[in-house]
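Journal club side-thread
Mid-discussion, someone asked how the predicted structure for our own chain would compare to the paper's figures. Pasting it here so we can look after the session.
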Amino acid sequence: MEELVKAEQAMPVQTSKPTKLSRNLQYIKKNYILYLLIAPAVILTIIFKYIPIYGATIAFKDFSPIRGITGSEWVGFKHFTSFLSSPNFMEILMNTIKLSSFELLIGFPIPIILALMLNQLRKSSVKKNVQLALYAPHFISVVVVSGMVFLFLSPVGPINAMLSTFLDKPISFMSDPDYFRTIYIWSGVWQGAGWASIVYVAALANVDPQLHEAATLDGASLLQRIWHIDLPTLKPVMAVLFILAAGGIMGIGFEKAYLLQTPMNSPSSEIIATYVYKRGLLAGDYSFATAVGVFNAVVNVILLGVVNQVVKKLNEGEGLV
């Protein structure tokens, strides 16, 4: 009997394995300071990004401010059908896609080129002055930039003054739909390319200088060193930023398009964002405008998923998610 008691006491005590929930709670308790730091951002995101999603239900209702969201009549996909069957649907959709696509194709590689050029400047004082000149336009208001565009491209502006020696009459740049996309895209490149290059300049700072020295000793030219050393370093950053930019291809900024829009160039400048503003806030058709906005958001999500998968296949499985 004593031997049996001793054997039972010698047996190891079976302890229950902690669950995943308990492990997570222990981790949160251990690192609660980190969670307190991100708590304000999470709370603000929930308040201003997730809770307002409920208001999107008015896209499926005949919304009345008097009856409110819950009291308005449910009409299903009536407003979506109305938008998709409207005579100007394709014009607005194609204007949005063309403007965003051209802005992406032209504006995306320029910050990379600027970063590669800045990386070749060895004199720090010159590099700082060049960076200051490139970053400065970013801090100019969109309203001011739009005013500058109207001023410089007016029939009596400096651009037409320079072209007067070659042309019989001034060009109405802001009244001609054919010039709108060019003006919009290149004014955006001038304003944002320098600021967008900061990320790539920071990534290039991680390149080991000994790699360039070794490549130079092996006889590699400048372009060869950029192609085989600098660009592979930028590749992961380029992939993520391209996915984010392509995912927002339908979310082109409203302010600049609206500020540069005139009755004469509206065939090229009328995009989904300006159309929603006019139908929603100016005309008071809140349900229809919300339906257009929901349609725009759905297309954005689909594009984000498609572009992410394409980039993952081209980038050895590395994408946004």
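Post-session note: Residues 130 and 242 are 25 Å apart (CA to CA).
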